[in-house]
Design brief:
Layout: E1 3-7, H1 12-28, E2 38-42, E3 45-50, H2 53-69, E4 77-79, E5 83-84, E6 89-95, H3 101-113, E7 118-123, E8 126-131, H4 134-145, E9 154-159
Antiparallel strand pairs: 1-8, 1-9, 2-3, 3-6, 4-6, 5-6, 7-8
Helix pairs in contact: 1-2
Length: 160
Amino acid sequence: MPSFDIVSELDMHEVTNAVDQAKRELSTRFDFKGVVASFELNGSEISLTADVDFQLQQMIDILKGKLVSRKIDVKCLDVAPADLSGVKARQVITLKQGLDQPNAKKIIKMVKEKKLKVQTAIQGDQVRVAGKKRDDLQSVMAMLRESDIDLPLQFTNFRD
């Protein structure tokens, strides 16, 4: 019986490369000349530090551009509100990875509403979809690509 897994994973090596490229661009940009601004990657969090709030927004745009150029979906970014203290502005961006229970249940509900002849099951941080016809599985993939789920989804382990 054909099946595949729905997962939400990040290539952390590519994320590290994107943050390093963003740091390099920050040091060469004219509008950040003489400004103490930095990116810091700690596990699954990226800390941004700058002098004022609008510079943080520019830094987020730089980071998103570098992530997109490395084929990482920006839906994985969870941007916290900026912490504005007197002299510095800080912001933490959390990298979302893996399917949590509410999102997995939402995916299963969407598949069941489609009324295809497939079975779905939650297995840890992934959802397994199995069915008799490959076409049904491919229509589930197409439906999930067009959905409004705020996570980057990958389809792995396709078995025939």
